[in-house]
């Protein structure tokens, strides 16, 4: 009996150990979840990450379509390489940045309209924004048509300016496509419909490689075929997204056909679109001014290459932050439209925490792999070593740029573009460029001085946007009341 009792006791003890072993992973998982929930709202974070990833892929695809054209043109010769690069930079600051900025009005209007369940108004806002885009494309196209003269007046090499001007003339159709794309993208983004954007951007990118090769190497167009291929590929993307909006049943509430009512919303849309465009362009231009200032320094070839590499690094890094910026804008605008300012602030705090984690990952990758990254741009050991010395400054600027990117997305979601524009103007030009010029030329810090000036501008901008979100009342923008009651005429 004693042996039997001892055997039963040992059996019960072993079974308890077994049960404890089986449940311990669950206990560990639950403890981990509780630990994470204290730091961040896990469900909100998951939703934002699933939203941000497709937006990052979409942004990268649209960034690479014109860049692939530059690569094909660059292989035709040194003049073609210089001309296409100059044209692409000029296109970014005088056209593409403008289109991105103008579409920012839809982040406010469509985002808050969707949150308020005014679904019919989303299609009206989209049409009004497309009309505004068309007007500004016409103005930008005139500038592009005479860009060879403009670039020559800006003291660029006459032959390179002529090559850039020719390139831009064949890229004009692509500017309209890019503007319409940005509007449709915002229309879908504010409804949290993002996966179709990935398909309608990656597929045209893949097709673009074949189209560019065929036009550049298999036709008499040669150099002119590169920008024409970019225009064709952008229009393919427009047609794909346009057909999706017209045919998909999920847009029956938000798209009711073309309506004359949209004409009455052009002015109200423009009041948000213009500050939004200025807000984006002021930041784009600040980075380009740094490159121009670098060209005025002693040993300008090395300094210009170094600053251009830093600007490109910042741009590539910001593509990752862009997805979270779009998530912040959408979540904030939707919640404000629904009348939930506290939930909008909560969504912003979650996005900021995710951004800091993402920025740290990218900064660590840059810190350990800066020589490998620099070698992709240049084989010169002098430039690679100089870039290595710039890496600590790049780390600081990327951290600031990530945080301000999220706060800028919040500003677009809240409809504060006019206030953010004033902050960008003051911080980048009164603070950043002034300090950059003093440190770069007077103190003779050269490239480091220019980038320290940019860091000062970004830091003050971040502080300004933080104060804006802290002390400005989070409310819905007022939409015209007549728009909800007025009978409308269907045009198509």
TrEMBL record:
GO cellular component entries: membrane
Membrane topology of the entry: Multi-pass membrane protein
Pfam family, one: MatE
Regions that span the bilayer: 56-77, 89-110, 122-144, 164-181, 193-216, 228-246, 266-286, 306-329, 350-373, 393-411, 423-443, 449-468
Xref: InterPro entries: MATE_euk, MATE_fam
Keywords assigned: Membrane, Transmembrane, Transmembrane helix
Gene Ontology BP terms: xenobiotic detoxification by transmembrane export across the plasma membrane
Domain of life where this protein originates: Eukaryota
Entry's family note: Belongs to the multi antimicrobial extrusion (MATE) (TC 2.A.66.1) family.
Protein name (database record): Protein DETOXIFICATION
Organism: Olea europaea subsp. europaea
Taxonomy of the source species: Eukaryota, Viridiplantae, Streptophyta, Embryophyta, Tracheophyta
């Amino acid at each position: 009996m004693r042996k039997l009792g001892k055997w039963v006791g040992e059996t019960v003890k072993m079974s308890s150990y077994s049960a404890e072993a089986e449940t311990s992973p669950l206990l560990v998982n639950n403890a981990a979840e509780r630990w994470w929930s204290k730091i961040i709202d896990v469900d909100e974070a998951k939703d934002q990450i699933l939203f941000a990833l497709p937006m990052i892929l979409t942004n990268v695809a649209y960034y690479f379509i014109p860049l692939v054209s530059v690569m094909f043109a660059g292989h035709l010769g040194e003049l073609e390489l210089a001309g296409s690069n100059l044209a692409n930079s000029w296109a970014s600051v005088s056209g593409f940045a403008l289109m991105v900025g103008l579409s920012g009005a839809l982040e406010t209007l469509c985002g808050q309209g969707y949150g308020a369940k005014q679904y019919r108004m989303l299609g009206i806002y989209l049409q009004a924004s497309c009309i505004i885009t068309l007007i500004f494309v016409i103005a930008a196209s005139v500038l592009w048509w005479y860009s060879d003269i403009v670039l020559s007046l800006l003291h660029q090499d006459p032959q390179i300016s002529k090559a850039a001007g020719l390139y831009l003339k064949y890229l004009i159709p692509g500017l309209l496509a890019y503007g319409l794309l940005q509007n449709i993208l915002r229309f879908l983004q504010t409804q949290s419909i993002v996966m179709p954007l990935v398909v309608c951007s990656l597929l045209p990118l893949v097709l673009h490689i074949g189209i560019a090769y065929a036009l550049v190497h298999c036709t008499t167009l040669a150099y002119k075929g590169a920008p024409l291929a970019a225009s064709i590929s952008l229009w393919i993307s427009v047609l794909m997204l346009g057909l999706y909006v017209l045919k998909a049943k999920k847009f029956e509430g938000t798209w009711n056909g073309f309506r004359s009512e949209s004409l009455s919303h052009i002015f109200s849309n423009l009041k948000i679109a213009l500050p939004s465009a200025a807000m984006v362009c002021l930041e784009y231009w600040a980075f380009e001014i740094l490159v121009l200032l670098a060209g005025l320094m002693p040993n300008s070839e090395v300094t210009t290459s170094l600053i251009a590499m830093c600007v490109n690094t910042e741009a590539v890094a910001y593509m990752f932050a862009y997805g979270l910026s779009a998530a912040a804008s959408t979540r904030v605008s939707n919640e404000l439209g629904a009348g939930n300012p506290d939930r909008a602030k909560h969504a912003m705090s979650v996005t900021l925490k995710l951004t800091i984690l993402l920025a740290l990952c990218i900064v660590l990758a840059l810190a350990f792999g800066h020589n490998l990254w620099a070698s992709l741009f240049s084989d010169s050991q002098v430039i690679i070593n100089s870039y290595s010395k710039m890496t600590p400054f790049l780390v600081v600027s990327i951290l600031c740029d990530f945080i301000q990117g999220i706060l800028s997305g919040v500003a677009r979601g809240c409809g504060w573009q006019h206030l953010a524009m004033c902050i960008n103007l003051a911080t980048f030009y009164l603070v950043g460029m002034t300090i950059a010029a003093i440190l770069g030329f007077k103190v003779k810090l050269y490239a480091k001085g220019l980038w320290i000036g940019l860091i000062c501008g970004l830091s003050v901008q971040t502080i300004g946007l933080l104060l804006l979100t802290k002390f400005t009342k989070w409310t819905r923008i007022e939409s015209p009341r007549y728009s909800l009651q007025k009978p409308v005429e269907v045009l198509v």
